[in-house]
Fold this sequence. Notes:
- The chain is built from five helices and 13 strands.
- Among the domains are: 32-89, no CATH class; 97-212, no CATH class.
- It is elongated and about 90 Å long.
- The longest helix has 31 residues, at 2-32.
- The strands form three sheets. The protein has a six-stranded mixed β-sheet with strand order 6-5-7-8-9-10. It has a four-stranded antiparallel β-sheet with strand order 1-2-3-4, covered by helices on one side. Strands 11-12-13 form a three-stranded antiparallel β-sheet, with no helix packed on it.
- The chain is 24% helix and 29% strand.
Amino acid sequence: MKKRVFILLIIIISIIIIIGIITNYADTGRVSTGHEPKYCMKIISQDGKKVTYWGLGYKVIRYVGVSPNEPYESNIGVKMGNWLMQYELPMDSKYSDKQDKEIHTLDDFYNTELTQNHDLRNLGKTYSSYDAAKDNCFVIGAMIHNENVYQEFMENYKNGKPAFICVAPNTIEGDLILYDILYYEKTNQLYLVTDNTRDEFSANPKIELMQFENMAEYEYETHLYWILYNGEMNDEKFESEDVFVVTTLN
């Protein structure tokens, strides 16, 4: 009886080892080609910046720039090894270099990890609300699209995490306006790029970079607004140059 149990135990261990070898080989191929490991248990750190994939005898550690829900290929640092492997994102990494740099120009703005793949200066004149919706922008018009993107952006901002959002409202005449908003946690500042070059009724069409200290949903004269502002906020200040109204929420 003991001999049978021992043989069965050997068989089970052998099967586990074989499965581990096969899954390790498969996931090594996936990770090396920029794909998420498939045969692992996924664990997300409390701050949401580190994702660990536990496989049979191996693990993959991935660091993310925005949230663990962003596409796997957007990782800012990834390494595969055994269960005992320790991996921290190097302080002198490409990501760290970009995040430590201050933002003064449009080129600086579109040279961060969160914004480098969405430079509105490269969008054509025919870029539409439909295109913006497909690009996961928060589109505001006759219909609202991708409201979840706005909620995630605000949640990251409230928690002091780096955050980026493209907002695409329409003018009364139906022309598209684009706003790129970046919360830069290294300096605790908000940066706004406005693009009104598709507004046929604008007296001064241009792409402009602005900087603000705070952001909030603010109620003013029975309406709720999403605003960026500097200093303290009150009703008397609402229509000043220190306040930028992104959109009316209701």
